[in-house]
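Batch 3, record 17
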Amino acid sequence: MYAAGVSDQAQAAPPECEYLLLVATTTEQEELEKAAASIKAPWRPLGRIRGQRCFDLGYLGHTGGSRVLAVRVAMGPQGATGSAASAFRYPSLFRAQGMICLGMAFGLDKNGQAIGDVLVSTGLAPYDNRDVLCDSNNTPCHRYNYGRVHLHPAQEPLLRIFERRKAELKEQGYRVHLGSMLTGASRLGCESYRDSLATEVWQALQVQATKPDALGYAKEPDRLVGGEMEGAGFLAACPRDSPNWIIVKGVSDFADGKDARDSKVFEANRELACHNAATFVLTALAADNRLRSQD
Amino acid sequence: LAVSDPFDKLFQKPSVPVHPKVRYWQSAWSAKKVNGLDFEQLRVEFWREKPDELLTGFGPARLHVHFWNAVREDVCQPEEIDWDDKVNDALIQMKAAAISMENEGERFGMVLRGRLAAGAVQFGDGFFNAVLVTYLKDSAWAASPILVSILAGLNEYNPSAGQQRQNCEILIEAAIGYCIDSLFDGSSAGLRAYTKGQTIEIVGHALAYYLDERFHISSRKQLGW
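Prediction for the assembled complex:
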């Protein structure tokens, strides 16, 4: 019904899936395609649906499990084809139960994380929701107050799938880190800014965790493992108490601006990060489908 | 002298944390007085923005608790609370019916959502969807007027027969059974006073509401499908 290169298929009935993958850059899309090939999953371009390129990866693991589609979005949360607008349109259009945002992210711990490690978001902290204030000494400097930043939990069923996969993995050449992630539209490339951002957001999240809910429960936030850009858009598309998204991204840099000085290294790191994240997600979904098909 | 059995403590009913508002409603209901005012009926109003009110998708759900006099007028400002399955279960235990049958249907649609969430986790979204749609198409619910067109628009593969499918169907039946049990037991007043016919209508509406959200039916319409 859909063919590659067709400009728009506005009149054809859209395909349906259980899981929708979102990629934002050419590298992310290409590495997803390579990862699909490596597990012998199909990769059928569906042309442009509602203006954005879509791909069909079929039923991963076995026929009769969960079908997976992918959509290419613009980088970051903003714009008509950014992650926010896409998160409004495509899950409904494709009847998806969950959205998985793939690609590259920055890590926060150079000692505990390596380029290519995979980060899985247990929750997102949208750091743009902050107060920018004058410095208390009335100097020309400014300071941020992150007291408004709340942690938004990721979809639990998807999180369980990736937790199970992490437990199964042994020698795959990368590690998987589950935790909270920073999200915002900024492209970060400054070590001191990254550190102050992570420290201050973490402190704000911990303060919020001390405020118990009506039943007296207070939840400690999971440690911050990294940061990315597209997740912020998903927070607009669904209520905080019923999320339909999760972020799974490879560490391509540490937001310190150092890797960007050598473009070859930078590109190689990006490819590795995207490939590992895509491979982890596709193998996790395939393994999950196989597990559930066992009687 | 009787010697106390050290196990006795373990056999006492554990105290379950109850939402403070539920405690307040329970005590108001038992006294039939709220803020010093007499009331006759405790009623629930389910409120949630639908996709036609938003760009797509459903908004966050809320419950409004009404304290009505004999002529169904509020004796005071209704209480408002974010949707919480446990709070709603407590209101069901207090036999607090919704303000209308349609509203009851939407409220029980949310009940189904909560009770079926475990199914998607346990069986996977794809398999769960396939079993759910197949189960409903093969059941008496397929003839429910509100469900006919909805089910006709859902195309899921036929799931393979086996223990997994049976277990999934049991979970679906239990969720629907909980709704029926909450709505109908021949009582003369309160939530369980609905007739069999009314109960079928409400649960049909609840299933339609649940399917609408799960399969993005209204949201898709908003997008032109």
